[in-house]
Amino acid sequence: HTLGFAGIAVVLLAVFATLERRIANPILPMRVLAIRSLTGASAARALVFTGISTAFFIGVLYLQHIRGYGAFETGLAFLPTTFVLGVLSSGITARLMARFGPRNLLVVGMTTIMVALSLFAIADGHTSYFPGLLAGYALLGLGGGMSFLPLLTISMSDVPIADAGVASGFSNEVMQIGGALGLAAVGTIATGHAQVLVSAGDSLQSALTASYDLAFVLAAASVAAGLAVVLSVLRPGMVRTGPEQAPAEVEEAEAA
């Protein structure tokens, strides 16, 4: 069923692209897709969102199935992530981006996310929340806070004002759909790994721990792929953010 629906989706996408090329006022003009900074940053957003989504989705399963946390305790465990994200969104990220540039800040942010996911990948049922997991959740918020705004800024940097709305919608859809597909793929691979281990005689607890660790490794690999896109496709100098315009545009994007 999954492959069948995927095939239908591909056909519908091809039909949509064909119609868009022929009509006078397309919903998604092909000229928008030719903007390298938009497509590159959107792809990177999807890959980063896959990593972040995995951290939350698999993280909840790890805390509840391996650590035995309840719903309230699980929510508290994620507080460092949301706290750091909130602090950075108060304007700190905007100032850092204006000073160091979106691309440089993005490299640091995505690397930080990978470090956080690596900490989760080496955790097991005996890993204490402090300092290991706490550091991971704090770093996840730090990396996310330094990545989201620069990616949005880069994606819109070369888009003409007339196409700003459709370009923003395109970038957000790529992020959401790509992240959802990425998380589904990670979850499927991790589940298959757990089933293989159980069939080989491992305990369910051990198999789940190994599968969650694998999921975090795959999530880190997804973010690494996003970083590769940033370094190869989004070269220095592509993003035009002059000192006189950067603060206003950055603050407007962050507020959105």
Architecture overview:
The chain is an all-alpha fold. It has 2 domains: 1-34; 36-255, Growth Hormone, Chain: A, CATH 1.20.1250. It is built from 10 helices and no strands. The longest helix is centred in the last third of the chain and has 36 residues, at 164-199. Residues 241-256 have low confidence and may be disordered.
Largest sheet: none
* Mean of residue pLDDT values: 88
- Strand fraction equals under 5%
Number of strands: 0
Outline type: globular
Structure, briefly:
This protein has helices at residues 2-22, 30-33, 36-66, 71-77, 79-100, 102-121, 129-156, 164-199, 204-232, 246-255. It has 256 residues and is mostly helical. Helix 5 (79-100) runs antiparallel to helix 6 and helix 6 (102-121) runs antiparallel to helix 7.
Features:
single chain, 256 residues, mainly alpha, Growth Hormone, Chain: A, 2 domains, 10 helices, disordered C terminus
Strand-helix topology:
Blueprint: H1 2-22, H2 30-33, H3 36-66, H4 71-77, H5 79-100, H6 102-121, H7 129-156, H8 164-199, H9 204-232, H10 246-255
